Amino acid sequence: MKTYWSKALLLVAALFGFSQISFAACDMTLSSGANVASAVTNVASGGTVCLSAGSYPAFGSSVVKSSMTTITPAPGVTQSQVTLGSANVGTSQNLQFENMTIGGGSVGTGSSPGLHIHFVGIKFTGPLCINNPTNINQDTLVDSSTFAGLGTSCTEGRLGVNGNNVSHSVPSGIVISNNVFGPGGCSDGIQIVGGANGVQMLNNEFVGIKQGSCDPVHADPIQFYGAIAPVVTGNYFHGNSTGIMSAGCNGSNGTYTNNVFVTDGEYPDQIVQTGPNGGTYDHNTFGNGAKIRFGDPNHCGLVTNVTLTNNIMSGGLDLTEGQGTSTFKISYNIGTGGANAISGTPTYVGGSLPSTWTGWQLASGSVGKGAASDGKDVGATTFGPARSDLPAPSNLRVQ
User: Fold this and answer.
1) Is the pTM of this model over 0.70?
2) Residue 263 and residue 184: Cα distance in Å, rounded?
3) Contact 232, 260 (CB under 8 A)
4) Among residues 286, 280, 202, 213, which one has the least CA distance to residue 243?
């Protein structure tokens, strides 16, 4: 019976997108107020420390385990019932924090990384800083978590990634997936600085991040100021002032695929890209007049080497400061011209201005339906739920 229910709960977790849920028994159970770092130090590597309902002091130690060791609510205890003051894990290794409320934290230091650090199903009530100070795949995961109404971390992002100005030749192994950034807060959703390489931003929702009175702090969903080869795939941007700002002169070669950008009209340029090696833009949907701006507003040089394919560009391209497209590969788009351009106005399953992520799928018979270079629909082809409307992941555990 235990095996049957374990498989059933795993299926439920998979269906609802609750990643990395632990089903192991508790090796140690703590009462409110206990020292979590001390317990993690003492539990066997690969073990599970369970937290009873209540508040716990900040985790402020570097604890090295040889295999993934989990800190999670006790059976029957929900995310909102467990609060950890903060999680400043330093150079810890092999720790996973699950399904709790955490008042912010940090991974790694300016000179040494934390390795194999995972945050899954966390309600962050303070910002998070991830250091990437060495040329290594450090395996940092932030998944199925929320970042609403927060201020800045070690960067201007509520989730900041700092490459610490090291020359990185390998991807960092930092994955930011299935999270909700916003609404509210005077900070970027994510800001990457200092040359961090290959940070992956996958299937996140950015909602209600507004510049408003936040000056001089930026409030962009994503800002790059030294991001090398970032990967932005399957994200939903809506109700924000901007989208992705990559105008900092010291980043390059991003990959942007299967994203949906919906401007509310405040700033239609939902991606701003400057400098050489402008990257790859494939199967994105830019709705309600949203655009990409290519140019040289900060005197970085004009954009070169762009691949722009299979996108819906309702606002077209915004070419500024004398930007041209002679080095661009442009094909199979709606709203940009170029080779194999597709004319007409697409229609969506959610109407003329869909209010949900899934609503931005092309309707049957729409312009662009099945017309991309790969035989798929033009525009985004993968869509997640509006995660801000979902309850937080519950603690699914089998004893």
Assistant:
1) yes
2) 16
3) no
4) 286
